[in-house]
């Protein structure tokens, strides 16, 4: 997940964002993509700023506030309070979809990327603890009311983590879908689509992780017996967020390989929810690493190991990864390169120029050895993605669902030559090497969607001394997906409710010259979202996204329509609020 200096904020606390600001120096940034990038077309709104201006010196932008019609509505206040309640009595609700809901009930398009001008459907990410450790749905009343409110806002659907550690917790091959059955049926009743995330990682230890959900007990037992099943750094520190990809094809989990376990889980999900696939469940996002992202756990926050904006550390020191490295070195005729990874790459919280391997001049990353190691390390990640996607494609073929993979938006030190944090995460992206095109090409081979984070961030909002450049990074990724002809989807890395972030998302959603993003997932449903000003901003944002880049209407007109829509759907949201009070 992409991070900034405010990354410690919990996703469910409802705490307002406070952002440190600065300006990214352009002197060392890789900006070839921006040189040929088209600015957003003028017909998006009455006022527009050139996106390239973000590279220039400018003060931080304060969040703008849309016009306030009245004080906070009672119905949203109740929904907000109810959503924050820890315990709700179980209720059974029968819902009729209203005409106002039908207005925004278009099917999630099955053809991949959107043709420019068709608009971008918005999904909203559910709380991490939507399903409890006892496999029941948390806060049913509040969830029901909240989903109806989202539908009234024009949201296309929701995204939810389907936790391996909950569903297959106690015994291999025994799946308990209880809470997810309830949630998906509730989404269906409200006419909402679902992006289901196959979450094969641990929850806890990453930015925004407000709960702890470990891997299945039986998998944890095997990792205790053989600690090399965990990712390992050069100091012997183990990371138990996700099983090391070095043992992907070895029967280390009670007779099954990790990839077989993931495939069996996805197959069980397909069989249990086959009546909803392609209609309610429209996308399967396949988790491939920590935080569900295709990457190595190179910047773990747990126990203060890593802090933003450190460069992280390579995770190739378990015996399975080292065996692969040794084999690659011998195949290259350099067996001496196979005994260890780089020993001069610093530690988690160093900066590039603190290390011999990542420094600008004469750094090991830009040597023959560096090229060998980084090629091997990044290829291990690509091969991991290939193996899991091959299974996923076979399992969900002809089911009517899309398959997607999330890639982390590692934007800090992007302006340096070595791009050290990207390298330690497994993305071989430097001043001289494109690390995202190979990922896009791998996804294209399987017809998968490239889901990318940090879409809401602006360069000048980030610390200038760390040479953060999220806008340039997003542009590079958009170019890679365009070249590989793979659909691009996005999500925000941190909770944001201000107009400035919404405007940035709107601009980024149409960076591709020919096509818009196929979908955007908004992080995250929580009490703060339902506060009066935030709710108005959100409804306006959703409408603008659905209007699309080619909408030939004044921005103020769209905002007036959004305000009107908030007003006319008030009875629908009030109905949900009444249910919350009983």
TrEMBL record:
Active site, per annotation: 293, 491
What GO MF annotations does this protein's record show?
beta-amylase activity
Q: Where does substrate bind?
A: 161, 201, 209, 406, 411, 453, 492-493, 524
Cross-referenced SUPFAM superfamilies, in alphabetical order? (Trans)glycosidases
**GO biological process entries:** polysaccharide catabolic process
Enzyme Commission (EC) number? 3.2.1.2
Q: Which family does it belong to?
A: Belongs to the glycosyl hydrolase 14 family.
Q: What is this protein called?
A: Beta-amylase
Q: Which organism is it from?
A: Acer negundo (Box elder)
Q: What is the lineage of its organism?
A: Eukaryota, Viridiplantae, Streptophyta, Embryophyta, Tracheophyta
């Amino acid at each position: 997940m992409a991070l900034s200096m405010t990354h410690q904020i919990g996703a469910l606390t409802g705490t307002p964002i406070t952002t440190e600001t600065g300006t990214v120096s352009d002197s060392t940034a890789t900006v070839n993509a921006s040189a040929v990038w088209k600015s957003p077309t003028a017909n998006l709104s009455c006022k527009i700023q050139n996106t390239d201006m973000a590279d220039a010196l400018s003060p931080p932008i304060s969040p703008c506030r849309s016009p306030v019609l009245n004080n906070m509505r009672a119905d949203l206040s109740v929904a907000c309070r109810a959503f924050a309640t820890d315990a709700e009595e179980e209720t059974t609700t029968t819902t009729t979809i209203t005409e106002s809901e039908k207005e925004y009930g278009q099917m999630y398009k099955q053809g991949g990327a959107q043709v420019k001008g068709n608009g971008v459907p918005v999904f909203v990410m559910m709380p991490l603890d939507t399903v409890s450790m006892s496999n029941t749905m948390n806060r049913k009343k509040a969830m029901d009311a909240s989903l109806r409110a989202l539908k009234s806002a024009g949201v296309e659907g929701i995204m939810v983590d389907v936790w391996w550690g909950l569903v297959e917790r106690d015994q291999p091959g025994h799946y308990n879908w209880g809470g997810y059955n309830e949630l998906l049926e509730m989404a269906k009743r409200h006419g909402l689509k679902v992006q289901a995330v196959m979450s094969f990682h641990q929850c806890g230890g990453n930015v925004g992780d407000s709960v702890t959900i470990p891997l299945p007990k039986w998998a944890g037992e095997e990792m205790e017996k053989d600690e090399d099943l965990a990712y390992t750094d050069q100091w012997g520190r183990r990371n138990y967020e996700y099983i090391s990809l070095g043992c992907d094809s070895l029967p280390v989990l009670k007779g099954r390989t990790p990839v077989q376990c993931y495939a069996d889980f996805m197959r069980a999900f397909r069989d249990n929810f086959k009546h909803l696939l392609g209609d309610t469940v429209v996308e399967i996002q396949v988790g491939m690493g920590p935080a569900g992202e295709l990457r190595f756990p190179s910047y773990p926050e747990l126990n203060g190991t890593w802090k933003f904006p450190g460069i992280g550390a390579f995770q190739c020191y378990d015996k399975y990864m080292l065996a692969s490295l040794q084999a690659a070195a011998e195949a290259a005729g350099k067996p001496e390169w196979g005994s260890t990874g780089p020993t001069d790459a610093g530690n988690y919280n160093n900066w590039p120029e603190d290390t011999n391997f990542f420094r600008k001049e004469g750094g090991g990353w830009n040597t023959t050895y560096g090229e060998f190691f980084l090629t091997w390390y990044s290829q291990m990640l690509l091969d991991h993605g290939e193996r899991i996607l091959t299974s996923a494609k076979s399992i969900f073929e002809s089911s009517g669902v899309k398959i997607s993979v999330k890639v982390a938006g590692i934007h800090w030190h992007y302006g340096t030559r070595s791009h050290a944090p990207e390298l330690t995460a497994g993305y071989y992206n430097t001043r001289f090497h494109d690390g995202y095109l190979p990922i896009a090409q791998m996804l294209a081979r399987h017809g998968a969607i490239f889901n990318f984070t940090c879409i809401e961030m602006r360069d000048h909002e980030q610390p200038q001394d760390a040479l953060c450049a999220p806008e340039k990074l997003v542009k590079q990724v958009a170019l890679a997906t365009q070249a590989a002809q793979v659909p691009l989807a996005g999500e925000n890395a941190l909770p944001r409710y201000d107009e400035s972030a919404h405007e940035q998302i709107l601009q980024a959603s149409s960076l591709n010259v020919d096509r818009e993003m196929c979908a955007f997932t908004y992080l995250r449903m929580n009490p703060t979202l339902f506060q009066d000003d935030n709710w108005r901003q959100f409804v306006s944002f959703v409408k603008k996204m659905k209007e699309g880049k080619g909408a030939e209407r004044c921005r103020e007109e769209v905002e007036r329509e959004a305000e009107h829509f908030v007003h006319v759907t008030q009875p629908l949201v009030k109905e949900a609020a009444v249910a919350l009070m009983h």
